[in-house]
Amino acid sequence: MNSVDKVYTTLCVLFAVLIVVGNLIYQKFVFLPILPFHTFELSVGAITYPLTFLLTDLIAEFYGKDKANFCVKLAIAMNIIIALVISGMDKLNATEWSKIDNMTFHKVFGLYGVAFIGSIIACYIAQLIDIKIYLWIRRLTDGKWLWLRNNGSTAISLFVDTSIVISFMSVFGALPMDRMGMLIINSYLFKLFFTICSTPLFYIGVTVIRKMIKA
Q1: Which of 45, 75, 120, 157 is the S-S candidate for 130 at Cβ 3.0 to 4.6 Å?
Q2: Cα distances (Å, whole numbers) of residue 204 to 62, 106, 119, 170, 195
Q3: Fold classification of 3-214 (topology level)
Q4: How high is the pLDDT of residue 40?
Q5: Residue 159, CB-side half-sphere exposure with 13 Å CA sphere
C-alpha cells in the first residue's frame, strides 16, 4: 500500500470511528462554559462531531468527490452493523452476578436505534452537502482561500445536520420536545465555534497530507 492509499484509509477510519462513538455516547448532555458570555448545553456526542466534516473536507481536497462520498457510505455501513449488534445484545438477559443489569444496559444503549436512524439521515445528507459546497467553492475561488471553503461548507452542512438529527430524536422521544429549539441552537453554535477554532488544524492537516503524498 502506497502513501496515498495509507492516508486515505486513515482518514476514512478516523471518520467512521468519530461517527460511531458519537452515536454511542450522545445520551449524556453537559454544560460547557468555555465562553465568558455563554454556556453551551449539548450532547457529548456533538463535541468532536465537527471533526468529521474536517476529515471529509480533507478527503475532498486531495481525493475528490467520489472517494469522499465513499468514506461517508463506509461509515454508515459500519453504523448499521454496530446498531444490529447492540440491538441483539440488548435482547439477551444478564446474569444475576453481572455488574450491568438488563435495565442499565437498555437505558444506556436502548435508544441507540433512534439516534442511529436520525444520525444516519442527518450525516448522509449533511456530508453530501458539505462535499458538494466545498468543491464548488474550491472551483469558484480557483483553489484559493482554503479557510473559506472549509468553514463555509461546514457552517452550512452543520446546520442541516444539527437540525435534522435533533428534530428527529425529539419527535421520536429520545430528547424532550420542549428543548428541541434550544438544543439545536446550542449544539450548532458550539459546532460552528469549534469549526472556526479548528481552522489551523485543517491547515496543518493539508500540509502534512501534502508532504506524505509527495513522499
Answers
A1: 157
A2: 14, 41, 28, 37, 14
A3: Arp2/3 complex 21 kDa subunit ARPC3 (1.10.1760)
A4: 86
A5: 6
CA quadruple 15, 141, 197, 37: dihedral sign: negative
**Residue 130: which pLDDT band, with cuts at 50, 70 and 90?**
very high
Distance of CA 156 to the CA centre of its chain: 14
Cβ count within 10 A of residue 15: 25
The more confident residue out of 105 and 26 is: 105
How far apart CA 127 and CA 73 sit, in angstroms, is 10
Q: Which long-range contacts (CB under 8 A, 24 or more apart) does 33-42 make?
A: 35/193, 38/189, 40/186, 40/187, 40/189, 40/190, 41/182, 41/183, 41/186, 42/183, 42/186, 42/187, 42/190
pLDDT at 51 exceeding the cut of 70: yes
Instruction: For the chain, give every domain's residue range.
Output: 3-214
Q: What is the pTM of this model?
A: 0.89
Unique residue bearing C-alpha cell 452550512: 156
pLDDT at 115 over 80: no
H helical segments located in the chain: 3-25, 50-63, 65-90, 102-109, 112-140, 146-171, 180-197, 199-214
